[in-house]
């Protein structure tokens, strides 16, 4: 309309007088309304608190008081530290991935140790009788059979099941068979290697059981009706059976 086309007078708000400039901006009516409403809101809140304190029952009890606590007479709000199911399932997935990786690492290291050690029963306490069959042509040859000459090694090394050096190798390396210090060091290193092998195998087995528990917990947290068919026993997780769902 023509009324909206005509330029109107711009009404400017009155500014703070120069003599009162130190007091800041001049308060307008809307500022006074907001300040008054805030004052009334606080006054009413204090009035309600005083009324509740006056009418308070000293024997009053709520179950929330069990876990609540006060600080300088003020009740602190309890924080909800619970984690939702989806976050827990994600954490279980990450735990399962880490356990599987650690288990594979220990199994690989144990396999490398097992490949480098030949006498597997020496340190584990499971003594296995050495058996090496040599075929001869007759009883006469059997009677005069010399194992050291047959294996081309020193008589002291005949009973070895591993690292049985030949005489040429002994002469080249100039190994003293009577060196007790060298043999003691070799036995100590071998025993240490077997201890590490046993520790790796035990840790891999323990990680495998823990991985089974985590995978079972993840499956139980999923959807579907289920029931427990077997309780956890001897480190193994409990077994569950899910109800069959018809696929459409």
- Tell me the distance between the termini: 66 Å
Q: Which range best describes the helical content: under 10%, 10-25%, 25-40%, 40-55%, 55-70% or over 70%?
A: 40-55%
Biggest sheet strand line-up: 1-2
Shape: elongated
Low-confidence stretches: 119-127
Largest sheet: 2 strands, antiparallel
Residue share in β-strands: 5-15%
Secondary-structure element series: HHEEHHHHHEE
List the topology elements.
Layout: H1 2-5, H2 29-54, E1 70-71, E2 74-75, H3 85-116, H4 139-143, H5 147-151, H6 167-173, H7 180-221, E3 226-230, E4 239-242
Antiparallel strand pairs: 1-2, 3-4
Explained architecture:
The chain is mainly alpha-helical. Helices cover 49% and strands 5% of the residues. Strands 1-2 form a two-stranded antiparallel sheet. Strand 3 and strand 4 form a beta hairpin. Helix 3 packs antiparallel against helix 7. The radius of gyration is 43 Å and the shape is elongated. About 4% of the residues have low confidence.
